[in-house]
Every structure is written in structure tokens, then in C-alpha cells.
Amino acid sequence: MVAPTRAIATDVGADLLQMKDVTMKFGGLTALDAVTFEIRRGEILGLIGPNGAGKTTCFNAMTGVYKPTSGDVIFDGRPLGALKRNQITRRGIARTFQNIRLFSEMTALENVVVGTDARHRTSVPGALFRSSRHRREEKDAIERSMALLEFVGVGGRATEKARNLPYGDQRRLEIARALATEPKLLCLDEPAAGFNPAEKAALMDLIRKIRDDGYTVLLIEHDMRLVMGVTDRIVVLEFGKKIAEGAPAEIRDNPAVIAAYLGVPDDASA
Ligand SMILES: Nc1ncnc2c1ncn2[C@@H]1O[C@H](COP(=O)(O)OP(=O)(O)OP(=O)(O)O)[C@@H](O)[C@H]1O
């Protein structure tokens, strides 16, 4: 199997992204209240908290869907400021969504090739007249996309329409598509939603493999076993505020976290 070649960063452990006093208000509702934390290069960081705690809003502030009401998101040493979503993708942040968003009538391979477009440098005339550079980029994109499909474990379904893939493979395909943009930071929003225990275990292996391949991963996930089993550190939000941060074992034993989140039975937060 061809693994997508990634240079392992030499500065593993240094900050890749910093949320600095990020506040996000929607009318009278404060979804994020002066939230500060960092994501370190080469780590798997878990972002957890009860429903409505502000996790997805964090993702949205990091990926340019929302501009924070105040505060800064610093990525790779520079503030995201007023960058648009596609510019942020080019800077190196990719995400998947809680609800799968694939091009259902396109093949699995085509869905991933679309992701590589964020990296293409051919001009519009170059693409229209199929310049040799454009053809080379297209060939590279297809090869890399195939390698990514194999990397996430759906290489055998490359030519099938996305909508015909089993649910678990669609989730893996979404991850391949996000990786196709060659991100430094991959944000996964509840990637295990709807998975059975075997699929969850396989997903944990994939997340570790992604990290071992040189990516940094931010993971929103409600499944505590998965979060505790795969992350290096965890940040906990409640009502838009950060209430705890630390290694999984520390978070598990933190009374504020137990009160806010772990004390809630699984089916109460579904
Ligand atoms: N565009 C918006 N307009 C108004 N309110 C919003 C908007 N987006 C989020 N909110 C509110 O902000 C709060 C935080 O929502 P968010 O989706 O970030 O929480 P979450 O932790 O991701 O929750 P869940 O686990 O349910 O996905 C919620 O009260 C939500 O209703």
C-alpha cells in the first residue's frame, strides 16, 4: 500500500494553533467565552463537552465559517484574521463534518480528487486548454487520491458512487477527502457517530495512523472510550467556557469534568 508521504515535522510539540481569548456571540447567546488553548504539532487533541458546549463553534472559528466576536485564532504563527474558508484550507486546516457531506453522485475517487483542487496551481486557461502542467497535476492528483483511499481503507471502492458506499466507508472517504487538501491540522467532527464498537476500534487505529503520518489531529467526539483511548490531551468546554485541560487520565478524574460531562449518562447526551 502506498502511504501518502508526509514529512514528520521537526518541531513536534510546538504550538500549531492557538485560540487566544476567543469569544463568539450569537445575538444574546455567548457560544464561546474567552476560550484559550493550543494545539501542539503532532498531537491528537480531544475537544469534549456536553451538547451545546461550543465545540463545533470552535471548529467553525478555526475554519473561517465564523469570525470570532473578539480574540484571535493564530495558526502556524499567523492570525487567521479575515481569511476566507478556501484561504484557510490552503493555509493547512481541513475538517470533516458531523453530517457527512460528500458528492453522492461522484465516485469515491472523484470525491477525493476534488479535495486535491485546493492545491492546484494551474490557471483557468491552463485548465481549459489542458496544458501539460494541468495534465501532470491531474495525473498526480489521481495517484495521490488513490493512495489516500487505500490509506483510509476504501481503496477497493474507488470507482463506486459515494452514495453506494456503506456508511462507515463514507466516513472514511470524508477523511480521505480532507487529507487531500494536504492539511497540517485535520479537524474531525464526531467521526465515530453511528459506528459499532468494531468500527470505532478501526477508527482509532486510523486516527493514530494519520497522526503517525505527520498530521496534527483535533477530534470532537462524544464517545468517551474512544476519546480517552486515542487522544494525547483533552480540552473540556462547558457553556462556552474551558473548564479543564490535560492528559486523558487527568480529565477522567477531574471533578469539574465529572460533574459537567462524565456524570451525564450516554443516552442523556444523545
Ligand atoms: N449560527 C448560530 N446561531 C445561533 N446560535 C448558534 C449558532 N451556532 C451555534 N449556536 C449556539 O451556540 C452554542 C454552542 O453550539 P455548538 O454547536 O458549538 O455546541 P457543541 O458543543 O458542538 O454541541 P453538540 O455536541 O450538540 O454538537 C449552542 O447554544 C448553539 O445553539
From TrEMBL:
Record flagged with keyword Nucleus: no
GO biological process: D-alanine transmembrane transport; L-alanine transport; L-isoleucine import across plasma membrane; L-valine import across plasma membrane
Origin superkingdom: Bacteria
One Pfam family here: BCA_ABC_TP_C
ABC transporter domain segment(s): 17-264
Keyword terms, alphabetized: ATP-binding, Nucleotide-binding, Transport
SUPFAM superfamilies: P-loop containing nucleoside triphosphate hydrolases
GO molecular function, a single term: L-isoleucine transmembrane transporter activity
An annotated GO cellular component: plasma membrane
SMART domains in the cross-refs: AAA
PANTHER family with a match to the protein in the record: AMINO ACID ABC TRANSPORTER ATP-BINDING PROTEIN, CONSERVED COMPONENT OF ABC TRANSPORTER FOR NATURAL AMINO ACIDS-RELATED
Protein known as: ABC transporter ATP-binding protein
